[in-house]
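Journal club prep — side note

Before the paper discussion, L.F. wants everyone to see what a predicted structure for a comparable chain looks like in token form. Sequence:
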Amino acid sequence: MGRLDSKIDSLEDNKRRTWGGRLEFIITCVGCAVGLGSVWRFPYLCYRNGGGAFLIPYCVSSFLVGLPLFFMELCFGQFASLGPITIWKISPLFKGIGYGMMMISLFIGLYYNVIIAYIFHYLFASMTANLPWSACGNTWNTDACLVVGEGTQTNATNFTSRTTLLNTTDTTEVIATSPSEEYFYRNVLEMTDGIENSGGLKWDLSLCLLLAWLIVFLVLIKGIKSLGKAVYFTAIFPHVILAILLVRGVLLEGSAEGIKYYLTPDFTRLLDSKVWSDAVVQNFYSLSVSFGGLIAMSSYNKFHNNCFRDALICSLMNCGTSVYAGLVIFSVLGYMAHISGKDVADVASQGPGLAFIVYPEAISQMPLPTLWAILFFSMMLLLGFSAQFSMAETVLSSIMDEYPHILRVSKWRETIMRGVVCGVCFLLGLPMCARGGHYLLDLMDHSVGGFPLLFVSLFECIVLQWVYGWSRFSEDVKIMLGKKPGIYFRVTWCCLSPLLMLAVIVFKFIQLKPYVYHGYTFPVWAQVLGWLIQLTPVALIPAWILRRYCYDGGLKALKRAGSPQADWGPARAEDRAGTIYDADSKAKTLHDNGTSNPAFDQ
């Protein structure tokens, strides 16, 4: 039997690839963390929650939750060299946590690639001398369309009086829309009046989505072997473009006012609990904690890799890039406020509104707008893909690690599986490419973030540090890194991080209310759909426990399933040698005499 186990271990070692170098892993983690949210979510949250003062709760939550959980997941994945589902042989009763992580990555990956399809649409539309969102008078424009800074009509057939967006004494209430806003909603999306009216598929967005999934498949066709090479470009080049856009932004008139609005601290906001809640959730978003991606990516590391150094580098780079991207965005928003005569607060936005309306509007007012549009949307595309590649690989590696005897038998079978999964994800994303699909996309974005991330991370932390136990987990880290984690990690992993997550969950429950998108209240069935999206990753945890209870024989079976499997430990024989996981050790003899796992007979 031992010979057979060794043969299987050897086979799995040969089948499971590793990173080509330490730098590939770090860049991939940075790319996974520094995604589109760093450009369109963090700057707005920083402005809305007290400007520079928001950095205080953001850094505190990063210190108490972000960095500890980031390091914990890297240790977890690197020690066992397994994906986010299979790795729960550490405590098979809670394997539902792994399924929950995979579902979170799957849900986010589905709508994330639709956003990338939007970006492709804009990138292709930018390759023209006159940007299509720079002026009114197009077939998709309405009578309310008004170019910033112009008070004259731009459509020859329209004789409706318009007021200028510049300073004016006219108190007549006129609802004017910018060309970029009408281009996004009336041409790119052709948005319907509600989620109940799908309006049919948009062929251009559907083709862009197909292109996005095709690129994901081609980049991940060989797993991390091809991913590790692609991230050198997708994760590094956006920072070069960010630097170019920052230089251009600070040279614009009014940019200083935008940066002032972004960074000026309002310390009274620190008394608002919602500010702290936003800071914690943003840390989960930006660091990709509980997505399963950190476990999947670190599982391809060498066993003795210094993952604490990697966690520290990635956390600092993520925080720095978020603040840096805010300077880029708000320098341009200051320019927009200057030429429109508005306050920065009136032009600031978040999410797609910032990326596809406000910033493109500013670009259209600059000299050489085509150049800046191509640079901006190229940067957005690369940021999107660098995160999407990691999420897609998380889902793919989770499936392959669960069924290696089927999917890792040959390279062709693995390639076909990757193609099939990408194809199915493309089909699942098509409803969001319908004319009413943006409502579904926004509903998914609102639903996946928040409760699923917090609950999954809370359960993960409790199981690893209380069920499996701090002493066991710290001994595993010592085997891998040469020393146990310090008191800082013991306090945060065992107490502070779970308590803070629980506090945020309670606060978010108290603040619950029906979700409204730009004044549109979702119908009841859509609200129910949103709750199903939120509850699915969380419900998988008790559902798996119930499955073990029903199929394995009641409470005694649950108790056994809460303990690590006999084969838990480092994946490679050379890493187990000389440790409590060594098959030839005295502990192994004790195990053969009847104990569940020799490492844990304490």
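L.F.'s comment for the group: The radius of gyration is 26 Å. Keep this in mind when we get to the figures.
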